[in-house]
Amino acid sequence: MSENKIALAIHGGAGTILKSRMTAELESEYRSGLKTALEAGWKILLNGGTSLDAVEAAVVELENCALFNAGKGAVFTHDGKNEMDASMMDGAAHKAGAVAFVRNVKNPIRLARLVMERTEHILLAGDGANEFAREMNVESAADEYFFTDFRYQQLLEARTRGTVQLDHATDEPQLIEEIAGFKFQVSNEKPETLNLKPEIKNLGTVGAVASDWRGNLAAATSTGGMTNKKFGRIGDTPIVGAGTYADNRTCAVSCTGHGEFFMLAAAAYDVAARMKYKSSSLIEAAEATVDYLRDIGGEGGLIAVDASGNIAAPFNSEGMYRASASADGGMKIEIYR
Amino acid sequence: MSENKIALAIHGGAGTILKSRMTAELESEYRSGLKTALEAGWKILLNGGTSLDAVEAAVVELENCALFNAGKGAVFTHDGKNEMDASMMDGAAHKAGAVAFVRNVKNPIRLARLVMERTEHILLAGDGANEFAREMNVESAADEYFFTDFRYQQLLEARTRGTVQLDHATDEPQLIEEIAGFKFQVSNEKPETLNLKPEIKNLGTVGAVASDWRGNLAAATSTGGMTNKKFGRIGDTPIVGAGTYADNRTCAVSCTGHGEFFMLAAAAYDVAARMKYKSSSLIEAAEATVDYLRDIGGEGGLIAVDASGNIAAPFNSEGMYRASASADGGMKIEIYR
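^ inputs. structure came back:
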């Protein structure tokens, strides 16, 4: 009847994902987290649900998994709080919603959807966005929810040990650790007295893009932002056109990486613009955008789908946590190149 | 030697600018405000200065003029404060800086430039952005600076009388006034007891785009945001790609209008994308973007220049405060179609 084909792609962040730092157990946990999220969204598409519901369900699962920097796994700000950003775009209705700096919201992607559906605005930030969350009665979570997790502590301690060992080899009081294209200062306190809060929690972004039976496209992205961020920095995740974009006529896109470069490139919209104005295919457009990002120094990647069920997931970093499902391509869960 | 030609365009906002509401005296003040800003930037370009310095100087003048909704003329938020947004982009270095929700900063565009030049970030918002302002020692201004002004009061009272008269004709306790594509609730208090603070201050955005002798392009945009805004709404002004964009290879763009639609369209970048991917001329690209905005319901306009000194200033609203100067076209100051 129709040439529309359902497709779903998700990501859990891109960056310097080193095999040497990855244990078999941890890799298996990442894969399991991606699988749970993929299945949540795919089930909805298979049952004739909307792409909006599918990307929301997938991102909610990624937000609920402590391994990814979004929702439960959100990184800590300077004052040890979690401030999260999220955005969603509906490629059929040409509507979008986003939040920046929300605290104690269990699933920021749900709040972004409420901005899209219940307000005439697109981006709400800070105290105002938190007030909106209370007014909408979205599920809240205490500070502890975003922190305590046995498996998570294991990951933290592993990383900490690695960096402190390195630290012994230098005179510098601080060590720079590069993750996801960012340089982070890591304290050289002894492991046993380490304050595990600000500097070294999981990094990245999560996102999902989907095409449903009706050919409607949707994109969703969520992040815990930058660890120890200062000065109220906002990255690309809550920015429509930079971190997230969806338009039925072209594609749905969700980005992850060094946000500033994605903002300069208007990366998510750039994929759509190449398809619209240059007649590039989804794959060509997505790859050209990621190549351009590499050229300007922007490490990261993106996932994209079109209404024909094509999927692209290019990245210029060492790895990107990603998974996809489509009628043609089956299910894939990947981390490295 | 070179085909580069200097050019400068500025705007002071677009929207429902009704001749019937405009007195000869007020129109003359608007024209005078635009002229001052245009000359400030043009002088820099003529003297061989950079497009960055030119757009900054022009926007500073517009921010200092109480008639426009930016800097001194910034509208009031819910709690009677002024929260301002601004952004700047350097088309040569491919860098950008922006601030959202800054308070008591005399010239937010200067702060946006400091974000571009002194940090690795692009967008700083809220308390963090204010902390950055203090650290950079930018000129601050007390709350009163953003309010008291004899001429400004005249404008306010004129508008108030108009709206209160209308109000008498309705049973509704509130009147909806539409300015710049937004609907605003206006209090029906008696003129003599009117609280002139939140609802009815000047609306819009200011901006400037320039091309200098070297063919370097720059764009700058600044706004006082939405009157009586709630929930921490961020519009297109501080969003690179939506309200502001500059790339030497294509154009420099500054937008004004109903911000949400400019965000959905990634309007400023869309002009560049049409030039880059579709080989449209500056004029064709700028007009196509504004036509598209009209099609999706986005009232407003934009100004754009390229490195050959071409200028475009299309809008789909009733008027746009605008002015331009170029070697070929001389000086123009316009308000209506």
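The interface with chain A takes residues 94-96, 100-101, 119-129, 131-132, 230-235, 239-242, 245, 260, 263-264, 266, 269-270, 273-274, 276-278, 296 of chain B (CB under 8 Å). Chain B has eight helices and 15 strands.
thumbs up if we can close this ticket
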